[in-house]
Amino acid sequence: MVRPGSRKEEEYEDDDGGCGDCLAKILQTPVIIAASIIVPVFSVTFVVMGAIFLQDCTIEPMIPVWLLVQGIIMLFGIGTGGMATRSYKSGKSVSLPVKLVSFVVSLATFAWFIGGNVWVYRAWAQDPDYAHSWFENGCNKSVFNVAFYGVIILDALAIISFIVGVLAFCLRGCSR
Q1: Coil, helix or strand at residue 10
Q2: Rounded to whole angstroms, how far apart are CA atoms 40 and 103?
Q3: pLDDT: is 145 or 110 the higher one?
C-alpha cells in the first residue's frame, strides 16, 4: 500500500505513460528514419514504374494504375503529415481542414492499399508471363516485381506498426 505523500506516490504521478511511453520513445527515432527513407523512395518508384508501364500488365491492368495512384497518395500524405507536424511542433493546434484532409488521405491510402493487395496477389496466383506482357496472362516483370515486393514490404510494415501500436497501448501504465 502506498501512503499519500510518499515518494512512491510521487513516482506514479510523474509516470503517466508507463512502459508504453518508454516503448514509443525507443522506437520513435528508428521509425521516423525508416519512414523518411522508405516512403519517399517507394512513392517515387511507384509513380515512375506505374507511369512507364501503364499498359504493360494485361493479367491485371490495375497493377500499374495502383502503383501510380499509391505513389501519388503516399507523396500527398507526406505533405499533409508535414503540415500537421509543423503545426503541432509550433504549439498551434492542427486546424480542422488539415485534420480532415489527413483523415481522408489515410482512408484513401488504406482502401487503395487493400485494392493493391487484391490485384497483385490475384495476378501472382495466375502465374504471370513476364516474357510476353501483351499476352492475356502477361505482365512486365519489372512493374510486377515492384508491385509484388512493394505490397509485401508495405504489408510487413503495416503489421509491425499494428503490433507496436497494440503493445504500446497495452503497456501504457503497466508500471502502476
Answers
A1: helix
A2: 20
A3: 145
- Directed axis angle between helix 62-89 and helix 96-125, to 10°? 150
Confidence at residue 8, expressed as pLDDT on a 0 to 100 scale: 47
Reduced to 3 states (helix: H, G, I; strand: E, B; else coil), residue 139 is: strand
Nearest-angstrom CA–CA distance, 115 and 125:
15
Mean pLDDT over 33-53 rounds to 88
CA 73 to chain centre: 11
Q: Quick one: cell of 150?
A: 512493394
Cβ neighbors of 45 (< 8 A, separation 6 or more) are: 71, 146, 150
Cell numbers representing residue 169 in the block: 497501448
List the grid coordinates of 140. Answer: 512486365
Q: Give 3's DSSP letter.
A: P
Crossing angle (nearest 10°) for helices 62-89 and 18-52: 140
Nearest to 60 by CA among 149, 127, 110, 151: 127
**Helix count and strand count (H, E) for the chain:** 5, 0
Position 1, amino acid: M
Kindly report the pTM of this predicted structure. 0.71
Contact at 8 Å (CB) between 116 and 147? yes
User: Which residues sit opposite 172 in a β-bridge?
Assistant: 18
